[in-house]
Structures are given as C-alpha cells and as structure tokens.
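Observation: inputs received (chain + magnesium ion).
Thought: call the complex predictor directly.
Action: predict_structure
Action Input:
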Amino acid sequence: MTFSVHGLPVARGVAIGRAVLMASSRVDVAHYFIEPDQIAAEIARVRAGRNAVVEEIRRLQHTISQMGPKEAPHELAALLDVHLMLLQDEELISGVKHWITDRLYNAEWALTTQLEVLSRQFDEMEDEYLRERKADLEQVAERILRYMKGVASPAAQPPAARRRTQQELLLDDSVDVPLVIIAHDLSPADMLQFKQSVFAGFVTDVGGRNSHTAIVARSMDIPAVVGARGASQLARQDDWIIIDGDAGVMIVDPSPIILAEYGFKQRQGELERGRLARLRHTPAITLDGQKVELLANIELPDDAKAALEAGAAGVGLFRSEFLFMGRRGQLPQEEEQYQAYRRAVEGMQGRPVTIRTMDVGADKPLDDGARVEAHLNPALGLRAIRLSLADPGTFLMQLRAIMRAAAHGPVNLLIPMLAHASEIRQTLALVETARQDLERRGVPHGPVKLGAMIEIPAAALILKTFLKHFDFLSIGTNDLIQYTLAIDRADEAVAHLYDPLHPAVLRLVAETIAQCNAQGKSVSVCGEMAGDTSVTRLLLGLGLRSFSMHPAQILAVKQEVLRADTGRLESWARQVVEAEEPAALLGP
Ligand code: PEP
Ligand code: MG
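Observation:
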C-alpha cells in the first residue's frame, strides 16, 4: 500500500530505489561494501562470531548447572536456552548470508540489517511473551558484533580502501537496482563513508536542513530528506521508495501511476542539469559587468575534481575536520595532513584553496562513539577554534601542515568560530609560531592569507577588530543563523524557526559585506545561503561578489548571476533588509 512520510527537503531531485534500512545499533558498526571475493570470508566471520557466542553460553550453562537454585535461578538457565535457540536459528544466518552475498554488505552491516528484519517480525507477533524475545535477539546480535569487533576482518584494510566507486558497482550485475538509505540518524562520518558509494538518496527520521549530515548529502548531490519522523519505522527492508528531495517527501511502495509521474520528474531534472552544464565555461559576470567569484565547498581532497568539473574558481571552504572523523582515536599527523592538503591544492591546478582549521564539536563529533560523551550544549561548547586553542599541539601541527601545502599553490587559512579579541591574538601568535617552527627546521612552506569566519553574531558586531587582523572574511551563515536566532541547526523540532531571511540575520550579513567592501577587504559567504538560488540576487544587491558552495550548486547560481543587474538590485536589497518580513519582498 502506498503511503508517504513528510520531512525537510535537503538535497534536490528525485531518487527511486529499494530501501536499505540502516539499523541503529548500540554497538558502533561500520558499513561498507565488500568485493565479491571477500564474500566467503565475511560469512565465515559472522559464523565464527556466532560460534564463539554459542560456546560462551554453553560454558555459562555448564557453570550454572553446578550451582544451587539460589545462586543461579531457574530463569537464568531458561534465558540462556532462549539465547542459544535464537543463535542457532537458521533464519538469522541465512538472512545474513543473503545480505553479504547479494548486496555485498560487510559482515557487521549484514548482521544488523538481518536483526532489523527479524525484530520487525517479533514486533508483529500476537503473543506477548514471544514479542518480548526481541530484546533477547538484540542481545545475542550485540554479543556477536562485539566478538567481531575484537576480531579484525581478514581483509583488514581501512574501510575507505574497500569502498567501491559508483562506476564499479554499476558495472557489477549483483547490484543493479538503485538503493536508498533510510535511517534514524546518520552521522557526518557515516555520510562520508557513503560519499563514493552507490546510494541514490537518503532519508532520516531526525535532523535539520543545515545539520552537517544534510550538508554532506548536498555535497553528494543526491536527493535527501531529513526530519521525516517515523520513516525508519514505517519503511521495510527492500521496499520500493521514492525520495522527492525538492518537496521533502518519502513515498513508500508507490503505485505504478505515481512511479511513472516521478520517473518523468526525474528525467526533467536530468534535462535541466544538462542545460546548466553548458554554462560551465561561461564567466560569471552580471549583466552590468560585475565579476563574481564562484567557489566550491569541499570535505575531502578528492572533491577538488568535482569542484573543477563544475567550473569553480577555487575552493572557498575546505572543511578539514572531515579528515579527522571516524578515525577511532588515530588522528592524522602532520605528514598525512600535509599530503591531504597538498592533494587538494594540486587538484585545483593553481586556483586558490581556502583551508579551514578543524571545526570539530557540536554535530560533528570525531567518532560516533564521541556522541555518547556529548556535552549539555555542544554547539555552545568546546568547538572549532575553542578546541584548537585548548590543544595547541594539535593546532600547531595542523597549521604547519597547511603552510607546507602552501608551497604547492595558493592557500588561504581560515579560522572558524572566533568571537573574542583574545582568541584572535592567541590564534595569530600560534600561526606565527608554526611558521617560525618550519623556518627553523628548514621545511619548505608557502605564504598563506589569513581569514576568519564570521559566524557568531558577536564577531559580526565587532567587525573592526576582525578587519584589523585578517586579510579576508568569510560569512558562515549556517552558524550565524543558528546563534543569532538561538535555533539548533540540527534539530528538526525547531527547523521551522531556522530562518535565513530573519531581519536580524540579514542585517548582520549586510553590515559585514558593506564594511568589508568599504575597507577593500575580500569577503565571501560560505554557508548554505551562498548556494541557495532564491537569495543570489539579494546577496548580489548587498554587494557580495564571492560565493562558496557545494560544486553541485555552482552552475545554478551562475545562471542567476548571468541574469542579474547589480545596479538595479541595490536599492531593492536595502529595502529587503529593512523590511519586517523580508521573505515577502523576495518573491516566489
Ligand atoms: C557555516 O557555519 O556557515 C559554515 C560554513 O560552517 P559549517 O557549516 O561547517 O559550520
Ligand atoms: Mg560554521
């Protein structure tokens, strides 16, 4: 039966495919695709895990059989019997085999997927006693997962190395249907793992439009919906799903008529992309001759390729923290970081690359596990530059790596979340220390321009201080909106109040642009507003000439630029900023 779940639109377009339900497990589980020649080894890993847990339970049974009823109550023995029975249930292992063999999931992913399928069957049971056995099933699956965690995969390479490109998977007959992910939540680190994988779209139960998970989805340019409450409970493994990323809707089990309608919409989208692609080599100049710089936001060095393909004039924001995520405590050292930054710099072939020092914290934990120790108000806590200043050793290492990469092409160094003059002073001193360090050791390095993000209202309100110390500024509207309006950008419950067009936000953005222009300092916007075509004319009218966004949005923004006449937009833009309800003046 067809039904739909509504959420928040994140990344445009239509995806049609089969559901891959990402079970949320209390054990931190890696998800990646394996190669066909690893199938047998992965199945063997699960079997070994199961056998080990069976052995463990048998040993326990033996121990308690020698105890009296007081020390080992009868219920305990009965429980162990149930666990053994569940472990030996063929449906568990045959299902896991199916996900490994037919879908090429790694062993842990296959096990949690099958656990999900069986849990649903338990949920539907009439008998309350049987229904409650679901908890036992979860416990035994967790024991197997924990056992497997202690035993590395025989093909023990990092997951990234095992990731297969979309091309490879499309060429593989065993994976011929597009797959869409449906999950309760996905961390930015999870998203990164999926970046080069097969998924055609995704839906999550929670999350806001500007959470980092949503931002990575947008950078992948696949249709996505977040905050679709109940989606992961309502859809089933392998259901046919339509994701309408423009409307923020997930349709489950669509009828043939609905499928045909969305198939048409999907083709229309592809045609539109084809039309935009023709603008790739067209210079971004407005009707009145104003040159506009369209830059790319990237998360990994290899994204430079997509940036170049979209015709980006450079990288306006390299979110370096993604290099640090999902590393389970093994953070990249100076050499590894240097190689990564260098790859991005060389990848951009002489165009400038703006590397932001790591902005870890809030909704970007280093590992999934780190979320457990989350602070009460992580977005207001030890995040970004605050974390870097609290750990100068790590910060200096990153600064040195960035300066070394600057020997290979133009590099700008961007500092996130500054608000205090004292933080600026400390940061500048550490930048100087890093430079002297390299000089003393005779390590080749290059000059960097220094920039600050304006993403805390306090920074926008003391702009003079920033203008005095930095070569350029970059407005991070995602956080500027969050902190101006006191709205958690990752919380779907308040997403309706997260308003880029709130007059207070617009005033801070307009003032920052105006002051930078008056002083001849370069300024860009690198938050999601820069890639939102509905505000391109407004930002141009406010004097902005540099926009940094996901590569996938560059051509659509360029189209707006080519149609704009900034002379005519200026007074209108001023009116919009002064209005009580700016959105009303912006048009449809
Ligand atoms: C921003 O806050 O607008 C920004 C670009 O940084 P991030 O989204 O990574 O916080
Ligand atoms: Mg930010």
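Thought: report the result.
Final Answer: Residues 3-24+163-274 form a domain with the Glucose Oxidase; domain 1 fold (CATH 3.50.30.10). The pocket of phosphoenolpyruvate (ligand 1) is lined by residues 215, 317, 319, 359, 455, 476-479, 526-527 (CB under 6 Å).
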